[in-house]
Specification:
CATH class of the largest domain in chain A: Mainly Alpha
Helix content of chain B: 25-40%
Distance between the termini of chain A: 45 Å
Radius of gyration of chain A: 25 Å
CATH architecture of the largest domain in chain A: Orthogonal Bundle
Shape of chain B: globular
CATH architecture of the largest domain in chain B: 3-Layer(aba) Sandwich
CATH topology of the largest domain in chain A: MetI-like fold
Number of helices of chain B: 8
Order of helices and strands of chain A: HHHHHHHHHHH
Largest sheet of chain A: none
Number of strands of chain B: 10
Number of helices of chain A: 11
Oligomer: heterodimer
CATH superfamily of the largest domain in chain B: P-loop containing nucleotide triphosphate hydrolases
Structural class of chain A: mainly alpha
Shape of chain A: flat
Chain lengths: ~270, ~270
């Protein structure tokens, strides 16, 4: 009886371990299915090879373009623009958001304006920013920074406005000055919401930079590359650029998530 | 007020010399306290005198403004008019501490427990060495067995509330306000912290004002039970209760305890029905 039970337990432990391993592989199931479908439809000719090249050659082309070609350069250029835009957006957006959120009356009087510009498609501002900042780097970066700034400022201001009052009261009851309450309590209290804004902001900055590279004159960047590929009918490289851009955006978001988990370890606990 | 047990140099008191000790009335003196909310007066020309160095439990009908009272006299919320004096000094010159009902919202989750306890000392601009010494002395005194290197969210509810109470005590306050500090805790932890609180009171003699919704607890801990009426709130009665400390489980079956509790309940019921 005892022996039997031991055997059963051992088996179930092994089964549970196997299931845990399987569960960890679940996230790659979706991508595998997609690539499988891509391969299948290409091989059977369902997909027009003139519009969608097969996965194998696409991946080989991408690999070569990254290692020996110019794709890495384009990627780095896009990254630099995104980081510049993000630095401006965060550098102005976080302090300004704190100032706006600190005073409910200021917040209420600016809320509509921020909401309005946030709802305006930032790409519609292209011509305006081209006029103001020209066709060079400044225009692209300024536009991306503006779009990210709006999201960051809104999230930070919202976070400050809705900071839990008890902690502020607690600090005040200990005799903390307003400045102290700001730097020690409200800033940190708002940090989880600030990170929500920063993460959304960097995603938007990437979108705007890539679109700006497509339409505002330039010689490099992933947006520029994708557009060039389409003009010259270099479809394998275009699909490859799409996949790399996607992976890049995902990686950027994930990096911010890691930073967030490190700095805002208390969020949601 | 003595805190000799800490055996440390007293912390710098708030600025403003205390008026001449002799002719100043000791204790908390509230005159003409008035506070109006959107739905009417909570306090209107409210007068109250409380003794120095006593444990005062505040009990009354729901919504009568028990918490509001300690918020107003502790300076946490502004008063419309009136005067509150502590041994003759206004609240701004008196060192008070406050323990909140919701420890989860009152502790700073980005700081380790130890830094939470030290934070009020940091606000007093004390250097790290002094802060450390003071925390050590406090911990030794109350025999705290909590890993203070942890973050608040890693501690149990009772441990978190213990940390909040330590944080409130670290400045050696003249008055300690406690707003239903047990109501978010399970029974076991309530008993534990209640005993700790009694211990703190016995050792430091700090004036304590406890808002409670548990009559037994209110009487058990109190020198004076302050019973309030419905709004606009007045003092229904102040009952003295002077059984010797430390009080224990046996206290709960003492005739004097039972009588005080019964009388409190009668006054409470009279006020609720009124």
């Amino acid at each position: 009886m005892t022996v039997n039970r031991a055997v059963v337990t051992g088996g179930s432990v092994r089964r549970r371990k196997r299931r845990a391993l399987r569960d960890r592989l679940l996230p790659i199931v979706g991508p595998l299915i997609l690539i499988g479908l891509w391969w299948l439809t290409s091989a059977t000719g369902i997909l027009n090879a003139k519009l969608v090249p097969a996965p194998g050659p696409t991946l080989v082309t991408t690999w070569n373009a990254l290692l020996h070609g110019t794709m890495l350069h384009d990627l780095v250029q896009t990254l630099i623009r995104v980081l510049y835009a993000f630095a401006f957006a965060a550098g102005i957006g976080v302090p300004l958001g704190i100032l706006i959120g600190a005073n409910e009356r200021v917040y209420r009087s600016i809320e509509f304006l921020v909401d309005f510009f946030r709802s305006t498609p930032s790409t519609a501002m292209f011509p305006l920013f081209m006029l103001m900042f020209g066709l060079g780097e400044e225009g692209k970066i300024a536009l991306a920074a503006f779009a990210a700034f709006l999201i960051i400022v809104f999230n930070v201001a919202y976070g400050v406005l809705h900071a839990r009052k008890t902690r502020i009261l607690a600090a005040r009851s200990m005799g903390a000055s307003s400045l102290r309450i700001f730097s020690d309590i409200i800033f940190l209290e708002t940090l989880p919401q600030t990170f929500v804004g920063l993460r959304a902001g960097v995603s938007v900055a990437l979108v705007v930079v890539v679109v700006a590279e497509m339409f505002i004159g330039g010689v490099d960047g992933m947006g520029h590359r994708i557009m060039e590929d389409q003009y010259s009918y270099n479809l394998k490289d275009m699909y490859g650029s799409l996949i790399v851009s996607g992976a890049f955006g995902y990686g950027l978001n994930y990096l911010f998530l890691l930073i967030e988990r490190h700095f805002v370890h208390w969020a949601g606990r | 007020m003595s805190s000799g047990a800490l055996e440390l140099a007293p912390l710098p008191r708030a600025v403003g010399a205390a008026p001449d000790e002799a002719d100043v009335p000791r204790g908390i003196r509230i005159r003409g306290l008035t506070k109006e909310f959107d739905n009417g007066y909570v306090y209107r020309d409210f007068d109250l005198d409380l003794h120095d160095g006593e444990f005062i439990s505040i009990f009354g009908p729901n919504g009568c403004g028990k918490s509001t009272l300690i918020n107003l006299i502790s300076g946490l919320a502004p008063i419309d008019s009136g005067e509150v004096l502590y041994n003759g000094k206004p609240i701004g010159q008196t060192k008070v501490s406050y323990v909140f009902q919701n420890y989860r919202d009152a502790l700073f989750p980005w700081m380790r427990a130890i830094s939470n306890i030290q934070y009020p000392l940091k606000l007093l601009h004390l250097d790290k060495k002094t802060r450390d010494r003071r925390v050590e002395a406090l911990l030794a005194e109350f025999d705290v067995r909590i890993d203070l290197q942890r973050y608040p969210y890693e501690l149990s509810g009772g441990q978190q509330q213990t940390v909040s109470i330590l944080r409130a005590l670290i400045t050696d306050p003249e008055v300690l306000f406690l707003d239903e500090p047990f109501s978010a805790l399970d029974f076991e932890m309530t008993l534990f912290i209640r005993e700790k609180l009694q211990e703190v009171f016995l050792q430091t003699g700090t004036t304590m004002l406890l808002v409670s919704h548990d009559l037994e607890e209110a009487v058990y801990l109190a020198d004076q039970v302050l019973l309030l009426t419905k709004r606009p709130t007045r003092v229904a009665e102040i009952l003295g209760y002077d059984d010797p400390r430390p009080r224990t489980v046996e206290t709960l079956s003492e005739p004097s305890f039972i009588a005080t509790k019964k009388l409190s309940l009668e006054i409470f019921q009279r006020e609720v029905r009124r």
